[in-house]
Design brief:
The protein is α/β, with parallel strands linked by helices. The chain has 10 helices and 15 strands. The strands form 3 sheets. The chain has a 9-stranded mixed beta sheet with strand order 5-4-1-8-9-12-13-14-15, with helices on both faces. Strands 3-2-6-7 form a 4-stranded mixed beta sheet. A two-stranded antiparallel sheet has the order 10-11. This is PfkB family carbohydrate kinase.
């Protein structure tokens, strides 16, 4: 039995920023697994993914880095193009290839206390798959993929199909300020958090970019500060890095405030370069200490 199993597609990403164009692996699964791999091994982690033959080298690289990966075959690997303007909160996306969805059969042999579902597109995880996993452990979801529909190569923001059905099985939900508006029509994170809680979610985590983040759990709000990066290089994977830090702490029994601050500090360090989180727990703790004075 693992403490946490992250389930999601590894992607091929082309990231275009005002400073550079980078081609690399990506997706929630990628950023989450590498982020977890940088932290002290206090929890037992496994990644479950699906890629086409051409991306098996990325899976092997992860295994060589010491990440435990279960990989199922797919006809294609997801291929994203992410383009950022001067403001790193603004991103346009194209999807140049799509992977097969995850199935109930592929989930039969995984055992974990928490399953973190890194959806990238709206059909990655069917309600049946989520329901099946919820009989085996707690469900944590990053909402982003459920709100992305591909038409041609372009990605459109859509409301969440089967929202009520899936949220009824969800214990922890992470979303950002844009996603909360798509889901609820509201710009007020407190209102949205309470609505989602009423639909069955125990811990609602809303990231608000440079304004920090808000956690709603056990009937209370926790306001988490944003820490200042030295420079902003690439925001791709920041939300996934936040989830990594948050769940890493929560699985060790840490409180909401402490877990949120740890996650926020991890994000700050991730913002300073392209690629997954590559720093140390000491650097995370330094940021929290130095910027909390």
């Amino acid at each position: 039995m693992k403490d946490i199993c992250c389930i999601g597609h590894i992607t091929r990403d082309k990231i275009i920023t005002p400073k550079q164009t980078v081609k690399m692996g990506g997706g929630t699964a990628f950023y989450f697994a590498y982020g977890m791999n940088q932290l002290p091994r206090k929890i037992d982690f496994q990644l479950l993914t699906k890629v086409g033959e051409g991306a098996m080298d990325e899976v092997e690289k992860m295994r060589q880095a010491g990440i435990e990966v279960v990989c199922h075959p797919s006809r294609h690997t997801v291929y994203f193009e992410n383009k950022y303007g001067a403001n790193s909160n603004n991103r346009t996306q194209r999807v140049l290839a799509k992977a097969d969805p995850f199935t109930v059969d592929e989930m039969r042999d995984v055992e974990a206390r928490i399953f973190h579902l890194g959806s990238l597109l709206d059909d990655d995880f069917s309600p049946e798959t989520v329901k099946f996993l919820s009989t085996k452990g707690r469900i944590s979801i990053d909402v982003q993929g459920y709100l992305r529909e591909v038409r041609g190569e372009h990605v459109y923001a859509v409301d969440w199909k089967n929202k009520e059905e899936i949220l009824a099985c969800t214990d922890i939900l992470k979303l950002n300020e844009h996603e909360m508006e798509v889901i609820s029509g509201s710009k007020n994170p407190r209102t949205v958090a309470m609505q989602l809680h009423e639909m069955g979610v125990n811990e609602v985590v809303i990231t608000l970019g440079s304004y920090g983040s808000l956690i709603y759990a056990d009937g209370k709000f926790y306001e988490i500060p944003a820490y200042e990066p030295h420079e902003v290089v690439d925001a791709t994977g920041c939300g996934d890095t936040y989830s990594t830090g948050y769940l890493y702490c929560r699985l060790q029994g840490m409180g909401y405030m402490e877990s949120g601050k740890f996650a926020a500090a991890m994000c700050t360090l991730k913002l300073e370069h392209s690629g997954p989180f590559d720093r140390t727990i000491e650097e995370i703790e330094d940021i929290i200490r130095s910027q909390s004075r």
